[in-house]
Specification:
The protein is α/β, with parallel strands linked by helices. The chain has 10 helices and 7 strands. Helices cover 52% and strands 13% of the residues. The chain is elongated and about 90 Å long. The chain starts with a strand and ends with a helix.
């Protein structure tokens, strides 16, 4: 029977939380009264996750599908791999660490039934450290200003999508993408709903400060030409200010005579050329960015 619902869960070093996830997730999905499947994508775990997944599959082979990566490719690539294999009309993504509640899945499905094509979870009363909350708030503010992608919490993986959105995302064949932002860019009627948030069931977060900074940098380079535009603007500013400095030096030379070594004139010329180079680099980058968007 073709499932109505597909639940995609990326897994990385989650041997301790998987049994609890299973005991909470399957009762919720069984209570829906609709056919479903659960896809667990093992993203190159280094602990005993593979053995736990085999045990879970032996318990629920009727609804559970397990995929194994040969190494760690990242959370979003694991989700995209799951998207390529889903069979349901509605797809839900969920993290395996149980920071989001499987019991909130019906809230998302209710919004799908109302006609929304993308339903994003917003973590209410987040149970994270202060520095992660700060980085998340800063990221969300920058994202809205730079990329114009309007969603309240792109870091929450408890989300629901209609099948047509998933098909468009898979057709992109992106090797480095962000599921939440890409889905929102295809959505015609998205909505956000508040969901519960808890501390990790077990283990430690796979995101440290360095990974979060890299995550933010990758996000903005995927969905915005702002870094390239920064070079163009910087080059124009340096060139313009150095031109004003050159005019000032020439006027000072006419009024007060030449300086001892002409060093400031040299500075003005060098700064002007640096500004031109930066501006040229930015313009070339603009063309590269437009090629990237077309592809």
């Amino acid at each position: 029977m073709k499932p109505y619902l597909s639940v995609v869960i990326p897994v990385f070093n989650e041997e301790a939380s998987l049994p609890t996830l299973s005991s909470r997730l399957f009762p919720v999905l069984d209570s829906l009264g609709k056919p479903y499947e659960v896809l667990l994508v093992n993203d190159g775990s280094r602990d005993n996750t593979s053995a736990v997944l085999k045990q879970l599959f032996s318990e629920r082979p009727d609804v559970l599908r397990v995929f194994e990566f040969n190494r760690n490719y990242g959370q979003h690539m694991a989700i995209m791999a799951g998207f390529e294999q889903v069979r349901g009309d509605v797809i839900v993504t969920l993290d395996a660490d149980l920071q989001n509640f499987p019991e909130d899945i019906p809230l998302l499905l209710a919004k799908i039934d109302e006609g929304h094509d993308v339903v994003g979870g917003v973590r209410a009363q987040r149970q994270d450290s202060w520095w992660r909350l700060f980085l998340s708030k800063m990221h969300n503010n920058l994202r809205l200003k730079i990329t114009k992608i309007d969603m309240k919490d792109d870091g929450c993986m408890l989300r629901a999508y209609k099948r047509n959105i998933i098909d468009q995302m898979v057709a992109c064949q992106e090797h480095s993408t962000f599921v939440t932002a890409l889905a929102t860019s295809f959505a015609s009627n998205p909505i956000d709903v508040d969901v519960r948030h808890a501390a990790r069931e077990a283990g430690e977060s796979n995101y440290n400060l360095i990974k979060l900074i890299r995550y933010n940098f990758d996000f903005f380079t995927n969905f915005s030409r702002a870094p390239l535009e920064f070079f163009t603007f910087s080059g124009f500013t340096v060139a313009f200010l150095s031109f004003l400095l050159f005019i000032y030096i020439m006027a000072n030379r006419i009024i007060h005579g030449p300086d001892a070594n002409g060093v400031f004139t040299l500075f003005a010329i060098v700064f002007f050329l640096i500004g031109i180079l930066l501006m040229g680099l930015g313009i070339v980058g603009e063309y590269v960015g437009r090629i990237y968007e077309e592809v």
